[in-house]
Specification:
By secondary structure, the chain is mostly helical.
Length: 126
């Protein structure tokens, strides 16, 4: 019996299936190994500005203590005109970020970093 014209033999079917499986495996590897873009986030500050950023723009939390310099903490806590000194040890995309906003930057995207500084932040807040 001769194969019909245009029919597929079992060996051709197996070869096609193997090629499809390899292509699928390669596509899945490429999909999972591709770096996914970080989501844009917005932080609305009480000085009227909105900062658009991604988590890779946020540096590690500053290693700082205000135990001996409470006025320094007060001067960078918030944009309160009576106290704000125009500076902060945390800068994101060129903007000095008051201490009051640090949880918004760290606790939703950099949770492990926020865990490490949460206790100190609450002590400063009090």
């Amino acid at each position: 019996m001769q194969p019909l014209v245009g029919s597929v033999t079992p060996s051709a079917t197996a070869a096609a299936a193997a090629a499809t499986t390899q292509a699928s495996a390669a596509a899945m590897h490429a999909f999972h190994s591709a770096k996914k873009p970080l989501a844009e986030r917005l932080l609305t500050l009480n000085n009227g500005r909105t900062l658009q950023f991604t988590l890779d723009c946020v540096p590690d939390p500053p290693a700082i203590s205000f135990a001996t310099n409470i006025p320094y903490l007060n001067g960078m806590w918030d944009f309160d005109p009576a106290h704000w000194q125009g500076t902060s040890c945390l800068i994101v995309k060129g903007h000095h970020i008051p201490v009051a906003y640090w949880p918004e930057l760290y606790k939703y995207g950099k949770k492990d970093q926020w865990k490490g500084m949460k206790t100190r932040w609450f002590e400063w807040k009090v």
